Amino acid sequence: MTQATFAATLLRPDLPCPAGLRAWNGSDPGARLAVYRNNVVSSLIDAVADTFPVTQELVGEEFFRAMASVFVRQHPPRSRVLAHYGAEFADFVAGFEPARAVPYLADVARLERARVFAYHAADAEPLTAKRLGAAMSSGQDLCALQLVCQPSTSVVVSEYAIVSLWAAHQGDSDLSALDPALPESALVVRPGLDVLVLRLPPGAARFVIALQAGAGLANAAVLAAGEAADFDLPNVLALLMGHGALITAQFPGSLSQ
Amino acid sequence: MSTLSTLLGLRTRRALPAVPKVRTGPGLPVRAGVGLKPEHFRDVLETRPDVGFFEMHAENYMVDGGPFHHFLGRIREHYPLSLHGVGLSIGAEGPLDEAHLDRLDALIRRYRPASFSEHLAWSSHGEVFFNDLLPVPYDRATLDRVCEHVDRVHERLGCQMLLENPSTYLEFEASTMDEAAFLTEVIRRTGCGLLLDVNNVYVSCTNHGRNALATIDGLPLDAVGEIHLAGFATDHDAAGTALLIDSHGSPVDEAVWGLYAAVLARIGPTPTLLERDNDVPTLATLLAEAQRAEDLLPAPAESKRCGIYWGCS
Question: DSSP E strands: which ranges in chain A?
Answer without folding.
Answer: 21-22, 146-149, 154-158, 184-189, 196-199, 246-250
